[in-house]
């Protein structure tokens, strides 16, 4: 499979806001880039349930890739 579009989303303590956003992103991509997209979420050392939430969403969304930093590294 050739990826036509990659989206990288930084996340820090986004467990409450990210699910709704990712749902909208997924719907858009599946309609406009079916089987040719990936969403890479970089969890920047979150202290909330961001990692667990992403793991749950990723179980049924193979286009979701999660990278995690063990500690917050900031914008730079």
Write a concise synopsis of the structure shown.
32% of the residues lie in helices and 28% in strands.
Structure write-up:
With 76 residues, the protein is α/β, with parallel strands linked by helices. It contains 2 helices and 3 strands; from the N terminus they run βαβαβ. The chain has helices at residues 18-32, 50-58; strands spanning 5-11, 37-44, 64-69. The chain has a 3-stranded parallel β-sheet, covered by helices on one side. It is globular, with a radius of gyration of 12 Å. The mean pLDDT is 94.
- Gross morphology: globular
Order of helices and strands: EHEHE
Q: Detail the poorly predicted runs.
A: none
Strand content: 25-35%
The separation of the N and C termini measures: 32 Å
User: What helical percentage do the residues reach?
Assistant: 25-40%
Radius of gyration: 12 Å
User: Mind summarizing the main beta sheet?
Assistant: 3 strands, parallel
Structure summary, number of beta strands: 3
The number of distinct helices, counting runs of at least 4 residues, comes to 2
**Helix/strand class:** alpha/beta
| Main β-sheet, spatial strand arrangement | 1-2-3
Name the average pLDDT: 94
